[in-house]
Amino acid sequence: MDAEIIAVGSELLLGQIVNTNGRFLSQQFAEMGINVYYHTVVGDNDKRLQDAVDIAKKRADLIVFTGGLGPTKDDMTKETISRMLGKELVFDQEALQSIEAYFTKSNRVMTENNKKQALVLEGSDILANDHGMAPGMVLTVENITYMLLPGPPSEMEPMFLKYGYQTLMKMMDKHERIESKVLRFFGIGEAKLETVIEDLIEKQSNPTIAPLAGDGEVTLRITAKHETKEKCEEMIAAAEKEILSRVGQFHYGNNQTSLIKELVKELTVRKLTIAGAESLTGGMFQEQLTTIPGAGKVFKGGIVSYTNDAKSNVLNVKNKTIEQFGVVSEECAIEMAENVSTQFDADIGISFTGVAGPDTQEGKPVGTIFIGIAFRNGKSLAKKLSLSGSRSQNRVRSVKYGCHFLLQEVNNLS
Amino acid sequence: MDAEIIAVGSELLLGQIVNTNGRFLSQQFAEMGINVYYHTVVGDNDKRLQDAVDIAKKRADLIVFTGGLGPTKDDMTKETISRMLGKELVFDQEALQSIEAYFTKSNRVMTENNKKQALVLEGSDILANDHGMAPGMVLTVENITYMLLPGPPSEMEPMFLKYGYQTLMKMMDKHERIESKVLRFFGIGEAKLETVIEDLIEKQSNPTIAPLAGDGEVTLRITAKHETKEKCEEMIAAAEKEILSRVGQFHYGNNQTSLIKELVKELTVRKLTIAGAESLTGGMFQEQLTTIPGAGKVFKGGIVSYTNDAKSNVLNVKNKTIEQFGVVSEECAIEMAENVSTQFDADIGISFTGVAGPDTQEGKPVGTIFIGIAFRNGKSLAKKLSLSGSRSQNRVRSVKYGCHFLLQEVNNLS
């Protein structure tokens, strides 16, 4: 089945909202084994919507519409489809009753245009709207299936999951499944990674291997198609094994995880506590740690030592260290990490000091960053970075590198 | 000018990412007076991309592409356009040098495929990429203008704002200007704000007034069209005056500002320094402060006291206070603010303590938050919030309320 998703609504073309419906349905279709080759966004305009449908009919056998089912004059999706397919709009009694009940219940007067929402294409299968008024509908005409869904994600998503999904699975009556797994890497660039596994990507057909880069990280999505879930997983595992034999040292997790989540997970398992001392990152490492519910089990707290005074007076970094090496130094990073772990009685101290930009500092270029790591009764070390991004990128990547280095150190403990 | 925006990338069709580029460009075009009639999303597939361009050529005279300019084999936007238009791809020396410099600076080996990013369509105007490697380009062939932009929003948005916008404005050479101003409000809901100025919105035609809500803030965008900039500004000023006469007490700034930027601005002007003590917000207030270059003039640093131990041992909150009132209390918030300002020798201390969720704490419901403010040699106070969002929303809104309360206090100083 080849699908096209058409989002109808001028507010999308004015940039007032973003087409999250396209994303949601694409995710669902990818999992269901339905190919999505195009998304189209078109405004509340009868002629242009008709043109978009004419184009979609030539390249898809499933056309899914979101939006344009509401009560106002702007809403015209089903009216346009009705005319194009020569199918009358008729009242769906259940939808009508549910709309009337809604207004009675909320003590509001039902205006006449609200009734319009109960009109459906004759002969279509109705998808009930449990979170709003306009029902969805599915209709197949001349081997093309039209699925009309409401625009608000709060109505569309549950409607699709509860009713639309089953309807399509039944129609397809097919046994092929699609499974995928995302491998996450840090510390290697997209181009480098792709060069190393180029032959695997080139010969891709089933499973496929697709790289994606963002924010200093790279992911590889492995997608397999087969009749059984077991066989899919087997094919994915084989590809994963081959990939990891080449770039395993940069792999940190799978699917919906992140470096900070992996760090919290690892510290929790090992019952280790942590405290942070941050300069250029201004608290970002600690803020990210505490986005995770349950971080309180491993995170004690920390200090944002944004000025040299704060480093010496609050964090107790020796004046001699600052005078001799500067605050942007391996020595200062290590002292910061050691001192913060002592002050907060934590097993591990981690520190971030460096030049985020735009100005240089202590004659050291923008992007010079030291990350200190100190273990209670154990070793201390510092890693140097030379980043070349904007101030914001340098801060974000420093935190990611901090998690990356610390994960490496913690994994080496046992 | 009628535009179509084509986003290229299979990751969009798989639902891995959402097309925020379509939204951003649509907003920009709406302001520039360029009509956007369609968005199209197409995968990394030469044939389907070509089909999409053939369709767009029939219905648009400006076709804007996002994505597919990267170094990998998947990236094929400029190769496809090159072939369709019969324009060679040639190396842009400036882009090539900047790519080489990037790799030299970051001490990484440049793989051959990275050079590909410096290839541009012959005869096109180049849009420099200040935040990445692939330059953008603009080329007009047979009365249709093609604009190619990179996919990552962190590269595309600044490139468009700094270079793409001007290029299009010059090409249009039109005399009607469009000017807009965004008024920002905090502490009032969207529905309430809209009710208060409903009559102004209803009679809107020129200037128009459009409300938009998000993350606890509401903005009003006033947009005026006229031949001269002066007249536009006059029209905007009149609308602004009327709006502020009704809801001026909630207005905190205009256009691309934020509560935290206004706070840094105000503290800088008044030469006041600040330190922060954070519990539920985990460093978010300090992290946001330090996103702003020059924050070092006002921000001394602070403490993330995530555990009760950290509050008493590092931040020196009295055990008696914690035992008697709990850490989620007015009394604890005030002590935290007072102590952090003393420890960091700052003019102002601000503190955040409360229950972010999902679990309750000290028998106090999720969303109970106290914000403490202490002035050196001056008054101390605490404000209580009862928020009803998710953990993440409660943290974000706490920081915004903190800025809001502190701005009010600081503005009352003189």
From TrEMBL, chains A, B:
Residues 4-170 form the MoaB/Mog domain. InterPro entries: CinA (IPR050101), CinA-like_C (IPR036653), CinA_C (IPR008136), CinA_KH (IPR041424), Competence-induced_CinA (IPR008135), MoaB/Mog-like_dom_sf (IPR036425), MoaB/Mog_dom (IPR001453). It holds the Pfam family CinA_KH. It comes from the Bacteria. CDD domains: cinA. SMART domains: MoCF_biosynth. Belongs to the CinA family. HAMAP family: CinA_B (MF_00226_B). NCBIfam families: cinA_nterm, molyb_syn, PncC_domain, PRK00549.1. PANTHER family: NICOTINAMIDE-NUCLEOTIDE AMIDOHYDROLASE PNCC (PTHR13939), NMN AMIDOHYDROLASE-LIKE PROTEIN YFAY (PTHR13939:SF0). This is Putative competence-damage inducible protein.
